[in-house]
Amino acid sequence: MTIEERESKKSEISEMTGTEAAGMTGEAAMYEEAVTVNPSTGGEGDTATLTDEDQAAHAAEELGRFLSEVAKTKEELDKAKQDLQDWENRYLRLQADFDNFRRRTRQEKEELGTYANEGLVKKLLPVLDNFQRALGAMAKAGAADNLLSGVAMIERQFSDILTKEGLQPLEAVGKEFDPQSHEAVLFGEADEVYPDGIVMEEMQKGYLFKSKVIRPAMVKVAKGG
Asked: Which residues form a coiled coil (predicted)?
């Protein structure tokens, strides 16, 4: 090898050595930079740990917020249930009141239809009494038979009309005194025929109108014995 070839070869080797040294220097710089970011082999792990803690704190915060919302929703739901129960109770009371009102109205309507003529019948009772008194007086006075029979026929027609409307005479003589049906105006000495508390005589007839006493009978009641 000549001297020129030897110098050329030496120059190439020198250049190659410089390039490798520069590459090694660049890798070392990169390594140093990496160590600076992560001073130890666990550098990236610490960052991950901090992130997990933050996430855990955030998750705990979210959980607390969620539980608070659940509690608030439950409270609103309980209140809504209570309101619903109150409205349901109010509805049931109104329904019961309406049913009672409808039942009372129906009963009043039925009673009104049943006893619509009660007032008129009561006003006609004195007329019926006078007919009966007149017949008794005419019989005692010996009135003519045709006159007596004519008045009796009118009294019977009048009585039949009232009977069709629901008027019925009360039985009194021989019955036990009943303050609902009888009005005691006299008392007599009790005997074997009329023991104590038994009606002995009827002074004025009493009447029922459709099972309702509209006038009690005036009676004489046996007492003592």
From this structure: 63-104
- Contact present, 199 and 220 (Cβ < 8 Å): yes
> What is the band of 51 on the pLDDT scale with cuts at 50, 70, 90?
confident
Mind listing the domains of the chain with CATH numbers?
Answer: 59-165 (3.90.20), 167-224 (2.30.22.10)
Quick check: 207 and 181 in contact, CB under 8 A? no
Interatomic CA distance for residues 120 and 102, integer angstroms: 28
Whether the model clears a pTM of 0.85, i.e. scores above it, the answer is no
The burial of 167, by beta-carbon neighbours within 10 Å (0-12 exposed, 13-18 middle, 19 or more buried), is given as buried
- 59-65, long-range: CB < 8 A, 24+ apart: none
pLDDT band, very low/low/confident/very high, at 17 (cuts 50, 70, 90):
very low
**Tokens standing for residue 33:** 């930079």
d(CA 55, CA 207): 99
Beta strand ranges found along the chain (DSSP E) = 167-169, 182-189, 199-204, 207-209, 212-215, 217-223
Q: How buried is residue 199: exposed, middle or buried, by Cβ count under 10 Å (0-12/13-18/19+)?
A: buried
